[in-house]
Amino acid sequence: MKPNEVPFFRPDLGEAESQEVLDTIRSGWLTTGPKVRRFEDEFGAAVGGRHALALNSCTAALHLAAEALGLRTGQGVLVPTMTFAATAEVVRYLNAYPVLVDCDPVTGNMDLADAARKIERARRSDLPGLSRESLEVVGIMPVHVGGLMLDLDAIARFAQTHRLWVVEDAAHAFPASWRGSSTSPWQKCGEGTADVTCFSFYASKTITTGEGGMAVTNREDLFSRMKLMALHGLSRDAWDRYSGGGSWDYRIVAPGYKYNMTDVAAAIGIHQLARAEAMRQDREAAALELREALSSVEEIELPPVDPDRVHAWHLFPIRLRLDRLSIDRNGFIDKLKGGGIGCSVHWRPLHLHTYYEETYGWKEEDLPNASALWPRLISLPLFSKMTSSEKEAVVAAVKSICAENRK
């Protein structure tokens, strides 16, 4: 195939999205208004959540959730080291301490055994960068890596035992579901599985609004606070003030933020939402094809599947068996890209980033599973409109690189 013929992702946008955006532009109302309200209502119904708040990013949703739950200076929150920057940085926005937790070596999701150890270390002031006698850990922010959900019963039990609030980083996990066992009922991600569940609609996510996010909660108090803080702490938003017989007046109730979603973005989201399960099924079919085609390649490990999970399949991460290869992960990526195959890495663990190394003094040995896993990770292309020739090209490239660099 020609270079760059298989992108890492390709947004799945259709004529319905285009027409809805055009309708929004012609309506004369571009910012937060009726399309946002419709998107919120329909998304909340889709995940089984009582309240849904559309925002300009998942980062905004995480920040608003932590603020509404009362996170304050000097407190600690359990955050997986195997995550994107946003999960931990919102803790720092509120001048709190992100307690980094190691990952499960199979799924890459948060390891609750290590989370328990980190709570005990926090009590003893035995975490990097701590100078006080002890650190009060008040919350936990699990991440569903790649769209494979954690055991949320286990998260709930853990949170109850340690008296923690739960904010779910579900940036990868829509639409996704889970059950504790084959005899348990299915639950959707966002269906009351946390105090707040936060979703992402970034361009490469399972549904997109270009940029965007959603906070979902069953708690009226948290929803009211997040809605207030999402738009400068104003008592009334622009739609309330300028539509129909609304009053122009408002009050500043709190020093809020500028996190609202626009109607232009929501116009895209409405139709992405309507096709979300169909697109998930397309990604799942592609993922299972890739798994089958690569199952005989001994130099790699394939992403896990679980019969008790409906996988969102946001990512298709493979793991290199470096002891069987004569090149490292970076060399493997160079060869993929040289052959026109887009790819990425999810992620460099937080404790191996400059900020967390220099600010707190986290070291590789503090989170050994993630430290060992990250040099082996490569996320291969996966998207809903992936063609047969694109899948074949990815498989051929991986097999060829492994064959040429086999020890």
Features:
about 400 residues; globular
Characterize the structure shown.
With 407 residues, the protein is of the alpha/beta class. It is 38% helix and 13% strand. The chain contains 14 helices and 13 strands. It has helices spanning 15-27, 34-47, 58-68, 85-93, 112-123, 152-162, 220-229, 238-242, 263-274, 276-294, 329-338, 354-360, 368-373, 388-404; strands spanning 51-55, 76-80, 97-101, 137-140, 165-169, 177-178, 187-188, 196-200, 213-217, 300-301, 309-310, 316-320, 377-380. The strands form 3 sheets. It has a 7-stranded mixed sheet, sandwiched between helices. Strands 7-6-11 form a 3-stranded antiparallel sheet, with no helix packed on it. Strand 2, helix 4 and strand 3 form a beta-alpha-beta unit. The longest helix has 19 residues, at 276-294. The model has no long low-confidence stretch (mean pLDDT 95).
Secondary-structure topology with pairs:
Layout: H1 15-27, H2 34-47, E1 51-55, H3 58-68, E2 76-80, H4 85-93, E3 97-101, H5 112-123, E4 137-140, H6 152-162, E5 165-169, E6 177-178, E7 187-188, E8 196-200, E9 213-217, H7 220-229, H8 238-242, H9 263-274, H10 276-294, E10 300-301, E11 309-310, E12 316-320, H11 329-338, H12 354-360, H13 368-373, E13 377-380, H14 388-404
Parallel strand pairs: 2-3, 2-4, 4-5, 5-8
Antiparallel strand pairs: 1-9, 6-7, 6-11, 8-9, 10-12, 12-13
